[in-house]
C-alpha cells in the first residue's frame, strides 16, 4: 500500500500521519479515456482523489442533453458532498484523460474526517472553492459565447493535462459544453483563426496559450484562482 501513487494536491497538503491514516483506507483506481461511472440518483459509495488524468462531472438531462458541471484533476476529488453526509450523485462521471486516482469508501472518509480536524480543513477548503466555481458557471453559461466558454474549457483541461495535445471528439466536446456538434465545430474554427489552437480528427493542439487566454471569458481566471490557489 505504501507504493501507491500519491500525487493528489490535497493529500500532499496533509501532515504525514493524517495522510498515512487516510491512505491505509484507499485503493488504486486506474481509468482509461472514455470510461464512465456513476448513475444519477445512485448513492455516492466511493470518493476519488485524482492523481493524474481528468474526470468530468456531467449533468445529464432527461432528453439526453448534457453539460459539464465541473472538472477534476490532481487538485481535487469527486463526490464533494459525500465526505460530510451520505449523498446521492447528481452527475455522471466521464474520464476524458486517462489517469489514476485513489479511491476510498465515502463512509470511511466521513469517519476519518470526523476524527481529524486537519483532514476536515483540507476537504472543506476544496469543497468551498468548488462551490464558488459552480456559482460562477451558471452565469458564464448564460452570458458568455460558446467560443469563449470553449477556450475556458480548453485552458482548464490544459492545466490538468501533460502536454499541449488533447484528444477529444466533437461529440464529447458537445456533451461537455452543452451544445450541438456543429456549434463546437464553429467555435473550434473561431479559436483556430486566432492562432490559439489547431483542431482535426479528435485532436486539439494548444498552439498559443496566451492567445487562448485572450479568447476565453474572464471566468477562467476567476475560477482557477479559487481552485488552484488552495
Ligand atoms: Zn465565462
Describe the structure in your own words.
This protein is an alpha+beta fold and 230 residues long. It folds into 2 domains: 9-130, Jelly Rolls (Sandwich), CATH 2.60.120.10; 144-228, Winged helix-like DNA-binding domain superfamily/Winged helix DNA-binding domain (Arc Repressor Mutant, subunit A, Orthogonal Bundle). Helix content is 45%, strand content 23%. The chain has helices at residues 9-13, 16-23, 106-115, 117-143, 146-160, 170-177, 181-193, 209-215, 219-228; strands at 27-31, 36-37, 46-60, 66-72, 92-105, 165-167, 197-200, 203-206. Strands 1, 2, 3, 4 and 5 form a 5-stranded antiparallel β-sheet that branches. Strands 6-8-7 form a 3-stranded antiparallel β-sheet. Strand 3 and strand 4 (66-72) form a beta hairpin. Helix 3 (106-115) packs across helix 4, helix 4 (117-143) packs antiparallel against helix 9 (219-228) and helix 5 (146-160) packs across helix 8. The longest helix is centred in the middle third of the chain and has 27 residues, at 117-143. The protein is globular and about 55 Å long. 38% of the residues are buried. The mean pLDDT is 91. It binds zinc ion. Zinc ion is lined by residues 140, 144, 148-149, 152, 217, 219. Zinc ion (ZN) binds at residues 140, 144, 148-149, 152, 217, 219.
What attributes does this structure have?
Jelly Rolls; binds zinc ion; Arc Repressor Mutant, subunit A; 3-stranded antiparallel β-sheet; about 230 residues; alpha+beta
Fourth-tier CATH superfamily name of the largest domain: Jelly Rolls
CATH architecture of the largest domain: Sandwich
- Note the overall shape: globular
State the name of the first-level CATH class of the largest domain: Mainly Beta
Biggest sheet details: 5 strands, antiparallel
Distance between the termini: 27 Å
Report the structural category: alpha+beta
Mean pLDDT: 91
What level of helicity do the residues show? 40-55%
Cα-atom Rg, whole angstroms? 18 Å
Bound molecules: zinc ion
Give the H and E element order.
Answer: HHEEEEEHHHEHHEEHH
Number of strands: 8
Amino acid at each position: 500500500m505504501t507504493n501507491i501513487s500519491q500525487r493528489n494536491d490535497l493529500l500532499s497538503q496533509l501532515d504525514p500521519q493524517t495522510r498515512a491514516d487516510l491512505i491505509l483506507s484507499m485503493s488504486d483506481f486506474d481509468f482509461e479515456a472514455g470510461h464512465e461511472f456513476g448513475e444519477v440518483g445512485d448513492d455516492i459509495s466511493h470518493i476519488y482523489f485524482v492523481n493524474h488524468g481528468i474526470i468530468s462531472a456531467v449533468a445529464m438531462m432527461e432528453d439526453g442533453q448534457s453539460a459539464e458541471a465541473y472538472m477534476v484533476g490532481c487538485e481535487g476529488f469527486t463526490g464533494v458532498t459525500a465526505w460530510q453526509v451520505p449523498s446521492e450523485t447528481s452527475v455522471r462521471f466521464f474520464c476524458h484523460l486517462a489517469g489514476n486516482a485513489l479511491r476510498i469508501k465515502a463512509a470511511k472518509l466521513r469517519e476519518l474526517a470526523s476524527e481529524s480536524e486537519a483532514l476536515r480543513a483540507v476537504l472543506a477548503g476544496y469543497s468551498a472553492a468548488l462551490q464558488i466555481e459552480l456559482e460562477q458557471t451558471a452565469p458564464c453559461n448564460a452570458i458568455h459565447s460558446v467560443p469563449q466558454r470553449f477556450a475556458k474549457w480548453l485552458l482548464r483541461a490544459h492545466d490538468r493535462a501533460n502536454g499541449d495535445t488533447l484528444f477529444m471528439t466533437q461529440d464529447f466536446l458537445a456533451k461537455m459544453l452543452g451544445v450541438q456538434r456543429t456549434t463546437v465545430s464553429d467555435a473550434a474554427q473561431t479559436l483556430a483563426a486566432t492562432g490559439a489552437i489547431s483542431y482535426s480528427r479528435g485532436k486539439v493542439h494548444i498552439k498559443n496559450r496566451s492567445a487562448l487566454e485572450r479568447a476565453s471569458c474572464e471566468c477562467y481566471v476567476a475560477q482557477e484562482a479559487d481552485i488552484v490557489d488552495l
